What does this fold into?
Amino acid sequence: MDEFELIQRFFVRADEARGVTTGIGDDGAVLKPDPGCELISVIDTLVASVHFPNDINAADLGYRVVAVNLSDIAAMGGRPRWMTLALTMTESNEKWLSEFAEGLHRAAAEHDVSLVGGDTTQGDDIVVSVQITGDVAEGAAILRSGAAAGDTIFVTGTVGDAAAGLELLSAGKPDEYLSSRFFRPTARVDFGQSLAGRASAAIDISDGLLGDLKKLLYSSGVGAEINLDNLPISDALASSFDRDVQRRYALSGGDDYELCFTAADDALPDVSELRVTAIGTVIQGDRLVCRDANGIVEYDDSGYRHFQ
Amino acid sequence: MDEFELIQRFFVRADEARGVTTGIGDDGAVLKPDPGCELISVIDTLVASVHFPNDINAADLGYRVVAVNLSDIAAMGGRPRWMTLALTMTESNEKWLSEFAEGLHRAAAEHDVSLVGGDTTQGDDIVVSVQITGDVAEGAAILRSGAAAGDTIFVTGTVGDAAAGLELLSAGKPDEYLSSRFFRPTARVDFGQSLAGRASAAIDISDGLLGDLKKLLYSSGVGAEINLDNLPISDALASSFDRDVQRRYALSGGDDYELCFTAADDALPDVSELRVTAIGTVIQGDRLVCRDANGIVEYDDSGYRHFQ
It folds into this structure.
């Protein structure tokens, strides 16, 4: 099977695609942006044995590599539209490819995203990059830099589940719910769009709540006080670990793909369908202070950092 | 050096960038498309020891991975605007990174392209993907599918040089000019833009002239007759190999990143600055016939195909 056949067979879908003049099969895709919109462009890579276990289910990998990019679009308040794929694989295995493509298209279809181009190559390891272009009304993108002293800090969903799920899996004690939060993260795309024009700043939690919040604070030139008693912990996480371990996962576990955002209280959108928790307050200065009922808690584990 | 520092140090440039509302440093880039334009999106990956020698100069790699994507934009008649980078590297080596970034930015700057985002990861091999978004006047993109019987078939520059250069290098008999055609390919961006609205079809020559021309013919539902005596061969290639070997490189060597395009004769743009050669004619049917002064020549080497 050559690359042309491979792409036709596994990656081309006949669905009517929004704003796609020419999709897969030419030197490039031709796309028609909506008037009055700005574009949002994101790219993220997953590398075997660094970002996922080598024996990952191919459908989970396909789903996950799209979801992590959707999450970046969500953090900007954008609507995801078109994606391109760069897939380096160890061999051209039809079963693996079919499953990978199924997971990829499933995550894309959940948010009406079209695969419009890609490149498949062979290498010694699986390396998958997905690039997504989205759009947002002109001037409405949510940046990391807009948080102001007095804003409330919120986080969506629950945090710490993905990292805990992966660690339990490695330890041979898998928890189905927690594992699913790693392999099939829920990008908060619709909620992110509802934040555009209402949140003062946002970031998605890929490297851990504390580390990613620090990036937001740094960009905004502010500090924060966090109440650790308010961290949103799932029942599954709470029932598997004691409080200190729960907190460690919640603060620096990473891979959650929830949104951390800041807003003036009265700007908080209706959140009836998604758990959204106020965890602290933006303050002047550059300190990030963690408290609980017993006082200040010190953490210097700032989350996942590459190349340390 | 963590990823944040790495990106700030090597990849963020202070240049004023066209149409970039928010560049590197947020969850995604915010970009402002021009009214009346469609977008063109391309992505291409280079894998160590598959697409380039392991000991490649980092600046050449950075240059080349941009150029191969610029070439795809050129083949669509587009103007390249914004690029994202997915770089998987074996270690965080400052000298290597600095050189890689220099080559990358040089190729981008030649066509006023801004690096607006990226992801750096660590793996066992170097895998580099670049995605470029360009634009083109609405409806003016050149597809592979527009060639019609009677059109003349053209190719820019000379063909076969890059593959010959690489083979001479591997054989320990490097030719400086031919090697440079592999390591620093010249994407025909300005010429590609001048073809928009004038060429009936175009493709860039990445996999070899014959193989890529076949893709164009297949998309257009036509055949072609090529005159091998008209193949544009550089002096360097001509002086290094006999005629049959020159032809083999020219027809199926790959990595040339020249444009092959079709046009009605009178539609050919002014080509005073770039060598453009008529090599044949589009015919009805689906055959690709190669001739020279002695009659029909049979070739079944259709160029580089992945996973065979």
Q: What stands out?
A: Chain A touches chain B through 72 residues (CB under 8 Å). The two ends of chain A are 40 Å apart (CA to CA).
